[in-house]
Amino acid sequence: xxxxxxxxxxxxxxxxxxSALLCGSFVLLPRSTPWFVGQPTQSSSADRPxxxxxxxxxxxxxxxxVWDLFGMLLCMSWWGSRMRRWWAASVKKVDQVxxxxxxxxxxxxxxxCSLSILATSVVIYVLLVTxxxxxxxxxxxxxxxxxxxxxxxxxxxxxxxxxxxxYDSGTYARFRMTRLPETPLERALVYPVxxxxxxxxxxxxxxxxxxxRPFQSYxxxxxxxxxxxxxxxxxxxxxxxxxxDTFDEVKQQQQQQVSHARIVEKRKNKRSKRT
Length: 275
Known about the structure:
By secondary structure, this protein is an all-alpha fold. It has nine helices and no strands.
């Protein structure tokens, strides 16, 4: 497979910006809840007050998750469009189209992403319940967590690559989402997905502990863990691609030095024969 050009410095800068947006949306948007339902109160551990800055997030987990979904949709729609531009540039599909065609293509992408998120949310919801998510009085909590995870894992991939179809020509096109990542752009799509799932799994750990802290309210910790995992996965993909590029440059320099040494040796041999 031909090497796909990918601007790693630009990716690092934009992923850093995205990381700030993800963390900021989760932390700052829930602080708007008191404008609609009144001032929040600490939900547990009254004898050990928490930081007032955290109370709007921990006192009403459902409201926090709703704000979180709003922020994730905005961030992932922007990030998916950015990734799609990189993908189109890498496969040399930057065609000039009229406004109507571009608008129709954008609407098709949004529809595909929305349907994919809904379908994936159902699958993740069943998986969360199977793995032990509380089902007595936390159906909405689990549903919002499932939608949060599906937005982080599915939206950028579907908006970039589209939904595979049986009518795609060639095995490569049909199974492009299931093979191992081979290019920097593919690693930038796959590694955050892995990081999101691992982060959500690790984020569940604090919930059953007997600390009796407000931030242990379900599903706040797996949500935070998934966001941090997504961010870590993106930077891990950058590190992996940067190291591979460095190794390739070193290898090319070594090959150039070897070829240069051979040329010098041949010239010496020719001169020695003449003399």
